[in-house]
Write a structure and sequence with these properties.
The complex is a heterotrimer. By secondary structure, chain A is an alpha/beta fold. Chain A has ten helices and ten strands. The longest helix of chain A has 16 residues. The termini of chain A are far apart. Chain B folds into three domains: 299 residues, ABC transporter involved in vitamin B12 uptake, BtuC, CATH 1.10.3470; 66 residues, no CATH class; 277 residues, ABC transporter involved in vitamin B12 uptake, BtuC. Chain B has 28 helices and four strands. In chain B, strands 1-2 form a two-stranded antiparallel sheet. The longest helix of chain B has 36 residues. Chain B is globular and about 100 Å long. Chain C is globular. At the A-C interface, helix 8, helix 9 and helix 10 of A face helix 8 and helix 10 of C.
Chain lengths: 240, 695, 261
């Protein structure tokens, strides 16, 4: 049981309105594993992340979390099963203060008594957030909003952490720190699914890489072999 | 002198406190609903009214005690209504536009009171004033300062308003449920990502806000002599100024805004009469402005307070997860199908015409004429809402401008009424264009509210001016309008000839509307409605197009209003053109079809003929063997069902913005449409094959 | 060649974060220029500043030697800047041909209330001919009467192009035209665009993610990262620029880098 995959996508297809954005994607993440999801824009990375956290339902195939079939489950049931997802972009409640944003999530994930400790942890992770704890999140800079969105999932230490476009809009030094934190969390047994455009960090952190192209998995393998494949893929005119 | 000024000032403040509290209560409720459900809930007044009426009925008809009556009306019925609305309507509409939700709320505020009155068999009776939630609420007074006594009911209102502000504030700031409710409004998806079930939270929110609406209704009721649903709607619209001051999110600001509105009006009423004693030119303003002050304030806040415009539509960061709504049913019809529809139309209308001009008696001719004229007015909604996609709630005022112009011109200058009708329509167009300049900058939901404020302003002030609605002379003689005479044709001599004139006017306007729809203006508006950014990218100016739409719409409404006045030989403002009537017009037209001329025609027929033909069961007597004597026992069905039916159909607006009838028609004819196209394709293929064989 | 678009030192910040810093981009007459950069580099912000959707904090936009920095969106469109959208923007419930017809009408300013009333507002024969000619050029001739809801994404994007062409733009801005299209569709779109551009001679500014398309389609390239230009020049050379590869890949040691020319 302990070695059962935390997340298993089997032949998952997904649609966006009339358009199909995933074609039979299969992906397995074992407890404590770290998988990087790479690919060009529009390749379907974000959709995979969304299916994995229940935001988008698979139109075909199956999704299991911890061995339980969750194909039909609602988003909040994924969260309760231990999947935490920091979506791409400025995914914060814009009219909430920084503290309210974190509290909303910590109340359930950490329990009432540990909200305060969770807030302190988030602020020590990102001191900028601590300085702005009572500022409305909508008025934060793009980078600070990313920090807020990430600090939520970093503090909760879920069974599976999904981060979409992790480093987007963050200063390089902050990105370094986030990756250090991710490495620490990984040590405590959290599995990671990292979606990235800047690939270097992702390759250093993760052991496995899945490369998406036009809604299918084009390549899957260990991170050590990934660099060359990725370069050829993104710049394949030069590679050929 | 100075001391008395101070005392008068203080007394005015105290005097303004009770009404201010009422505005504050409603403003708070409005903000509460918006914060927890994201709906601009005009039906708040209807919900408040239902609880107040239930309380009244339980107390006075069933002679229940205060506590059980309160439990039934506020803590059982109100949340039940809220939960029903959430489950059946608003849960499915989280991603609908704010404007569609507003239309639904207008539909509900028409339907809910009528539905309650029918089910609970409640009739407002004058002379039985409602009582409040404290014993002897209206008869025991406290006078802490010795200058103005507060009744117990008023104190109860003040206490509840302040307590509610504090409690609700605490709910939002301190509790997990409060945070979750705000979260669901902003982004149900992100709330679910935090492990919170959005549906359950949204149901809870509706239960709470509906309970508050019920509480506000029961508390406010003693201020009214008779419980009438429209009074509650008026209060809600006034209190919207308070909610606007709170920018729809701040409870303390809504409370202060409501109180300030009450104080401002009281001060105004205290001091303006004195100044106008000294300056006589102020007199007419004092007399006319006072009742309209709340609407002037509302309009002023909406138009001149820039904060409203950049208000708080925090977009859902995960909105992109949902795919765009599915396309409307296909708009292209096979020519053969169009031909069939037209042929049927010609036969149908010829038959109606034959009946009207040879068979019908005076009553039916008059009803038919009214239907045709209202259809003309409804074409103005076709232009502004159907083509331009804007919700205007002041079409009644535009129509009234037409009617009053004819009255004034005929009364003062004995001008030909047909010419006067044209002038009236032009004046309405001018007013419409001028009104559109400030309101178009606001956009969306606030635009609709600003037009509503204008309608109420017109209702409260303009109608009473002697040069508009006739003022005091109108009370004695009515606003009489003669029928037109054109050369040898006297349209007053026979109602049938006036029906013919009404039909001619309708046809001219309808043709004009169709020409506009197919012409540059209509196509420009369609582009804007389809995608504003794309329209701008090819050089279309949104403001210009919409000002034209407003002016054209107001022109048509004015012309129709003038025709209606001629037909009834009196403007009959109170019956025809009040803001409430105009709200029902909008609901009726959008629920049938706002985009087509047929929709306007059907709406005209429905408004006038639905009650006498369907509800009275008359249509059955046209069948063999049934006469008025052996009609089934449930006829005549009460006329209120009309409001329930069309109010509830408006709910479909979000999903089928083309209107129910239009949607049904498209769906019904789609099969045949497809069959015709398939046959064409088959023939083409066959012809191609034959051509291929030949070569 | 003369520059038709000169944007100089455009800067824009949102609530404290600098989205664009002194970005200057020129486009010559009839030229195909690309603008690339990783997500969040400021491409969209720059695009919106050019079009008038956003007002830059500093900097000016000149078009055909005229300062258009203060003009609203529709005036810039009238001046000759056409565009397409990343998330496709078509007029719902309207046929393909009507999209072109309304653009044609607005461009020629032949609309008037009275003309509408006497029926002259309907599409005229010469307008229909011109629209059909453009549809033919785009390979959409068969689809003129289709409602746009029935189109594929690729066809929809071509309708956007056609709609923009009816206003006879001297500069066409393409906002990530390949997004949502697969490889074959992207290639087909590029081919069609090149043919039309050769015939009509307008300039193109292409904002893209797809490096293939940019390499294939543009003559000159600007590269944005973190809100400033990090490289510019002829496309093939610019793509080899070390800073460009770093922007996309970080400081990753790329094995075959030495092998590059």
């Amino acid at each position: 049981m302990t070695d059962a995959p935390i997340l298993e996508l089997t032949d998952v297809s997904a649609e966006y309105g009339p358009f199909r954005s995933l074609f039979g994607v299969s992906l397995t993440i074992r407890p404590g594993a770290a998988v990087a999801l790479l690919g060009a824009n529009g390749a379907g990375k974000t959709t995979v992340a969304r299916v994995a956290s229940g935001l988008v339902s698979a139109s075909a195939g199956s999704v299991t979390v911890d061995g339980t079939d969750m194909t039909e489950a609602r988003t909040y049931e994924f969260a309760r099963a231990g999947v935490a997802h920091a979506p791409e972009g400025r995914s914060v409640f814009a009219t909430f203060t920084v503290e309210e944003n974190l509290t909303l999530s910590f109340r359930r994930a950490l329990g009432r008594s540990r909200v305060k400790a969770g807030l302190e942890e988030a602020y020590s992770l990102f001191p900028r957030l601590g300085e702005r704890r009572s500022q409305t999140a909508g008025t934060l800079s793009g980078g600070e909003q990313r920090m807020l969105s990430l600090s939520r999932v970093l503090v909760e230490k879920p069974r599976l952490l999904i981060a979409d476009e992790l480093s987007l809009g963050l200063a390089p030094i902050v990105v370094d720190e986030v990756y250090e934190t991710l490495a620490t969390i990984r040590g405590t047994g959290t599995a990671l699914l990292i979606v990235e455009q800047h690939v270097q960090h992702a390759l250093e952190l993760c052991d496995d890489v899945a490369l998406l192209d036009h809604g299918t998995i084009a390549w899957e393998g260990p991170a050590s072999e990934a660099a060359e494949v990725v370069v050829t893929h993104l710049f394949d005119r030069e590679g050929s | 002198m100075l001391a008395s000024f101070g005392e008068d000032f203080f007394r005015a403040l105290l005097q303004g406190t009770p009404p201010g509290t009422v505005y504050a209560l409603i403003g708070l409720g409005f903000v509460l609903t918006y914060k927890t459900s994201g709906v601009f809930n005009l039906a708040f007044g209807a919900q408040a009214y239902i609880s107040a009426a239930m309380f009244f009925k339980a107390r006075q008809d069933w002679e229940w005690g205060i506590v059980p009556a309160l439990i039934l009306s506020v803590f059982v019925l109100a949340p039940l209504i809220g939960l029903t609305l959430e489950r059946l309507i608003f849960r499915n509409l989280r991603t609908a536009s704010a404007v569609s939700k507003l239309v639904i709320a207008i539909g509900l505020s028409v339907a809910l009171p009528a539905l309650f009155e029918l089910l609970a068999n409640y009739k407002p009776v004058a002379g039985r004033p409602p009582t409040g939630i404290v014993p002897d609420g209206g008869s025991v007074f406290y006078d802490p300062f010795g200058i103005y006594p507060f009744s117990r009911d008023e104190l109860a209102q003040i206490i509840v308003a302040v307590a509610a502000m504090l409690l609700l504030g605490a709910l939002f700031r301190l509790t997990a449920a409060g945070l979750a409710m705000r979260g669901v409004v902003e982004s149900p998806r992100m709330t679910e990502l935090a492990g919170i079930p959005a549906d359950r939270i949204s149901a809870l929110a509706w239960a709470i806000s509906s309970m508050f609406a019920g509480m506000a209704g029961v508390l406010i009721a003693p201020r009214l002599n008779t419980l009438i649903s429209t009074d509650f709607l008026t209060l809600v619209i006034i209190a919207m100024a308070a909610a606007a001051v709170g920018r729809l999110v701040s409870l303390p600001r809504a409370l202060v805004g409501g109180m300030a509105l009450g104080w401002f009006i009281a001060l105004f009423n205290t001091f303006l009469p004195r100044w106008s004693d000294d300056y006589t030119w102020l007199k007419p303003f004092q007399e006319n402005l006072t009742p309209s002050l709340p609407f002037v304030v509302l309009f002023g806040i909406l138009v001149f307070w820039p904060a409203i415009r950049r208000s708080i539509d925090a977009a859902d960061p995960l909105a992109g997860v949902d795919p765009p709504p599915p396309a409307l049913a296909s708009a292209t019809r096979h020519p053969l199908l169009t031909l069939q529809t037209r042929a049927f139309g010609v036969v149908f209308f010829s038959f109606i015409g034959w009946v009207a001009f040879t068979q019908a008696d005076v009553r039916w001719v008059s009803l038919l004429t009214q239907a045709v004229i209202l259809a003309t007015i409804y074409l103005s909604i076709t232009v502004i809402t159907g083509f331009a996609g804007q919700i205007s709630l002041c079409q009644g005022a535009f129509a009234a401008i037409g009617g009053f112009t004819v009255f004034q011109m005929a009364d003062r200058y004995e001008m030909s009424v047909l010419l006067a009708a044209l002038i009236g329509a032009l004046i309405a167009a001018l007013v419409g264009a001028l009104l559109s300049l400030p309101v178009l900058r606001i956009g969306g939901v606030w635009l609709a509210i600003a037009t509503l404020a204008f309608a109420f302003f017109f209702d409260a002030v303009m109608v009473k001016f002697s040069w508009v609605g006739g003022g005091s002379t109108a009370l004695l003689t009515g606003t009489r309008v003669p029928r037109p005479v054109l050369g040898p044709l006297d349209f007053g001599a026979s109602d049938r000839s006036f029906l013919a004139l009404a039909i001619v006017v309708f046809v001219i306007v309808a043709v004009g509307v169709i020409q506009l729809r197919e012409g540059t203006i209509g196509r420009t508006l369609r582009a804007l409605r389809g995608s504003e950014v794309a329209a701008e990218s090819i050089g279309i100016s949104p403001a210009r197009a919409r000002i034209i739409a407003f002016a054209v719409s107001a022109f048509i409404a004015g012309l129709g209003g003038a025709m209606l006045a001629m037909q009834q030989k009196d403007v009959n403002y109170g019956q025809n053109f009040t803001p409430f009537a105009a709200m029902f017009w909008l609901v009726l037209v959008v629920s049938l079809s706002a985009r087509t001329v047929e929709g306007a025609a059907q709406a005209g027929a429905a408004f006038v003929l639905f009650a006498p033909v369907i509800l009275d069961g008359t249509f059955l007597t046209w069948l063999p063997f049934i006469t008025e004597d052996n009609l089934p026992g449930f006829f005549p069905i009460p006329g209120k069902w009309r409001f329930v039916l069309f109010g509830l159909t408006a709910i479909q607006f979000a999903r089928h913005p083309e209107g129910m009838v239009e949607f049904g028609k498209r769906r019904a004819t789609r099969k045949r449409n497809e069959r015709y196209y398939a046959r064409d394709a088959e023939r083409a293929a066959q012809a191609a094959a034959e051509a291929g064989m030949a070569t | 060649m003369t520059a038709i678009l000169e944007s100089s030192r455009i800067a824009k910040s949102f609530s404290g974060i600098q989205a664009l810093t002194d970005v200057s981009i020129d486009v010559m007459e009839g030229e195909r220029v690309g603008l690339i950069g990783p997500n969040g580099a400021g491409k969209t912000t720059f695009f919106n500043c050019l079009l008038g959707v956003l007002t830059p904090d500093t900097g000016t936009v000149r078009f055909h030697d005229r300062d258009i920095s203060e003009l609203p969106v529709h005036k810039r469109a009238q001046a000759g800047i056409g565009r397409t959208f990343q998330r496709i923007e078509l007029f719902s419930d309207t046929t393909v041909r009507e999209h072109l017809l309304i653009a044609e009408r607005v461009h020629n300013e032949r609309g008037s209330f009275w003309k509408d009333l006497i029926g002259r507002g309907r599409p005229q024969a010469d307008e229909i001919d011109r629209c059909d000619a453009v549809l033919e050029l785009l390979g959409l001739a068969e689809l003129g009467d289709e409602p746009v809801e029935a189109l594929s994404l690729g066809q929809g994007r071509l309708v956007e192009v056609g709609r923009a062409l009816m206003t006879e733009p001297s500069l066409l801005l393409l906002d990530e035209p390949s997004s949502g299209l697969d490889r074959e569709e992207t290639a087909a779109l590029a081919t069609t665009l090149r043919e039309i551009q050769a015939e009509k001679g307008f300039a193109i500014l292409l904002v893209e993610h797809d490096v293939d398309l940019v390499a294939d389609f543009t003559e000159r390239l600007y590269v944005l990262d973190f809100g400033s230009l990090i490289a510019e020049g002829p496309t093939a050379e610019t793509l080899q620029h070390p800073a460009v590869r770093t922007a996309y890949l970080g400081t990753l040691e790329v094995g075959d880098q030495e092998a590059m020319p």
